[in-house]
């Protein structure tokens, strides 16, 4: 007697059986008490079964492919480290990009893991719950692998060892922290739009695609492999974000204005977050594959427009900030670098004036702005440095109450003047970098008055050690900041003359001679 | 004019075959080579067919294996056992 082997289940059947079919509705307690968070933002959901994961990924397949990714990743990391891979990067300036990346990215991955863990608990439908669970595990993986990939550099270079302490204290890391703190303290659907949609779908392409390809171009196999390994999960995250938006808009027409406001808000918050990424691409990669402006055009303007055109059928409009970002793409990376260059004593990575060929590249990539507004400043600073008078700004930075960036960007219609906005709330004045940040604050002031602003904390005496009289007339708040940040003095200042520069040159010479 | 869909992969021997399959099945596909990665743009709708990828690879292929090499996508996704499809036209 022969028995025919059972027919293999199709992808759709497997997904249905192993996702939807494993869920149930509660009977001892009403569903509204089991899932208490999904109602209070005003979002109306009528049928959770309409949400489908187009990847149709089930947990068993998820573990299988993720395990394969990890095996590949760690094999490459081991090989890179065993082969003194850190000496194969283009030049030691490159390593500074890793210092900024380490402080700004893995801690945010951890926040994303926490956020999606909560989403996996709060979403009523089994489809989104499982997708959020997978994303939470992914984000935790990214947090760990990113730290592992940079840890080898920490054995050789300065400024990498205190990123976890600095993340919630350092003035230039507070923009990213504030982004995720804002998202994770919002309701579940706003979190999904903020991270799943605006961050993953619209914006991570800029960080992980051209920037990581740039890391590869600069010989950093470790950052390349960890970046692309993370990005292989991002395609799934983007899909989840896009499905979430479509689902919300299809469920009820009343959801449209709420979702539109979130898209407007989070597209802008993400845009501000990417100012530093622009600087990493244009200034910190010794070999460049494309300018930030070009990346913005491909991944935000073209890809974003494709998406917004598609969502127009639900009534979604292009985010209010879109036209301003198109103007700003010519400016933000330069203003960011100039802003960081002058604060070099208060940062755990080095800055420098690009060499003449690099300045020419920037002139070519930014014909409308670079020669007119930025090159003269950088050339002037170069001259000062060569005379032994490296320019430093020792004042406390002023930060935007909403995005936490230092206030340094220009008026949208006037590149020669800084954009300042303010609002008064309960008799107190708050400052912003832009109309969009002011509008976000004005909508939820109670939330944003709580922002942690490093320079305010310093001036209020909250960063001085115990026993210091912070009310004394001669109290100098700046005096204690480097200790408070645990800032390694070897990691500060200009790249020229740094330990990193000398050590890298010496080690590379050893690697190529007897 | 319809918007571009795109997909990007890490560059390796598997994705060399996958990209060849995409080019064969999608007239109008534009391949963009970048350091360590490869991106393919197709206006409107892109399909990756399991059978074509299997022909190029010379072995069986589960479309979910794409997950291991993926970097980014643009477009609405629909995945079955036989096709991985991205589109901006619903």
Description:
The complex is a heterodimer of chains A (514) and B (90). Chain A has a single domain, classed as Ribonucleotide Reductase, subunit A. Chain A is built from 23 helices and 4 strands. In chain A, the strands form 2 sheets. A two-stranded antiparallel sheet of chain A has the order 1-2. A two-stranded antiparallel sheet of chain A has the order 3-4. The longest helix of chain A is centred in the middle third of the chain and has 31 residues. Chain A is globular. The model of chain A has no long low-confidence stretch (mean pLDDT 93). Chain B has 90 residues and is of the alpha+beta class. Chain B has one domain: Monooxygenase component MmoB/DmpM (Phenol Hydroxylase P2 Protein, Alpha-Beta Complex). Chain B contains 3 helices and 7 strands. In chain B, a hairpin with a 3-residue loop joins strand 6 and strand 7. In chain B, helix 1 packs across helix 2. Classes of the chains: A mainly alpha (514), B alpha+beta (90). At the A-B interface, helix 3, helix 10, helix 11 and helix 14 of A face strand 1, helix 3, strand 5 and strand 6 of B.
How do the strands line up in the largest sheet of chain B? 2-3-1-5
Written as H for each helix and E for each strand, in order along the chain, the element string of chain A is HHHHHHHHHHHHHHHHHHEEEEHHHHH
Number of domains of chain A: 1
**CATH C-level of chain A:** Mainly Alpha
Fill in the CATH topology of chain B.
Phenol Hydroxylase P2 Protein
Low-confidence stretches of chain B: none
Distance between the termini of chain B: 15 Å
Task: Tell me what the CATH architecture of chain A is.
Answer: Orthogonal Bundle
In CATH, the homologous superfamily of chain A goes by the name Ribonucleotide Reductase, subunit A
CATH topology of chain A: Ribonucleotide Reductase, subunit A
**Approximately what portion of the residues of chain B adopt beta-strand conformation?**
35-45%
- DSSP helical segment count of chain B: 3
Radius of gyration of chain A: 24 Å
Order of helices and strands of chain B: EHEEEHHEEE
Mean pLDDT of chain B: 93
Biggest sheet strand order of chain A reads: 1-2
Write the CATH architecture name of chain B: Alpha-Beta Complex
